[in-house]
């Protein structure tokens, strides 16, 4: 990626282009682009098919991973946190859509994610196998 592109789209977008290329995003649902270190087998059936492409488009994997924390929490940890909350889809999709300060101790930017896309991403995250974050194990 050249300097002009990085200046135009910003460093985060440039990094996201290398971290989660579109071919990989298609593979997130188990297709040929599947990367072996991404445990997508934990993803349940009947997921929004456009969610992986949206995750790539909005650079979510720049700060998140499926099974381990990066800058933000692992998606499996989010699934664990909201697994018993009846308003989980509304809360997670609203956070994806608008960003803000998280209960994980960080801040997610407002990436102008449309409502329907935020709901698809939230549904995808919430259908992952819930995994308790390491720092909370044994605390409850």
Describe the structure using short key phrases.
140 residues; mainly alpha; two-stranded antiparallel sheet; 2 strands; 43% helix
Query: CA-to-CA gap between the ends?
Result: 47 Å
Query: What's the Cα radius of gyration?
Result: 15 Å
Total strands: 2
The major pleated sheet works out as: 2 strands, antiparallel
Helix content: 40-55%
Along the chain, the helix and strand elements come as HHHHHHEEH
Q: Count helical runs.
A: 7
**β content, as a range?**
under 5%
Broad shape: globular
Low-confidence stretches: 1-44
> What structural class do the secondary elements suggest?
mainly alpha
Averaged pLDDT: 75
Strand order of the largest sheet: 1-2
Plain-language structure description:
It is built from seven helices and two strands; from the N terminus they run H-H-H-H-H-H-E-E-H. The chain has helices at 3-9, 11-19, 22-27, 51-57, 75-82, 88-98, 115-126, and strands at 100-101, 107-108. It is globular and about 30 Å long. Mean pLDDT is 75; it is low at 1-44. By secondary structure, the protein is mainly alpha-helical. Helix 4 crosses helix 7 (115-126). Helix content is 43%, strand content 3%. A hairpin with a 5-residue loop joins strand 1 and strand 2 (107-108). The chain starts with a helix and ends in a 14-residue tail after the last helix. The chain has a two-stranded antiparallel ribbon.
């Amino acid at each position: 990626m050249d300097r002009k592109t990085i200046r135009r789209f910003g460093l985060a977008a440039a990094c996201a282009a290398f971290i989660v290329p579109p071919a990989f995003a298609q593979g997130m649902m188990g297709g040929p682009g599947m990367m072996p270190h991404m445990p997508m087998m934990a993803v349940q059936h009947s997921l929004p098919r456009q969610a992986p492409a949206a995750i790539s488009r909005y650079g979510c994997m720049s700060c998140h991973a499926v099974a381990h924390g990066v800058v933000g929490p692992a998606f499996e940890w989010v699934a664990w946190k909201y697994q018993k909350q009846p308003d989980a889809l509304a809360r997670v999709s609203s956070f994806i859509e608008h960003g803000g300060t998280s209960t994980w101790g960080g801040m997610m930017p407002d990436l102008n994610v449309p409502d329907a896309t935020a709901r698809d991403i939230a549904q995808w995250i919430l259908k992952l196998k819930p995994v308790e974050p390491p720092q909370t194990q044994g605390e409850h």
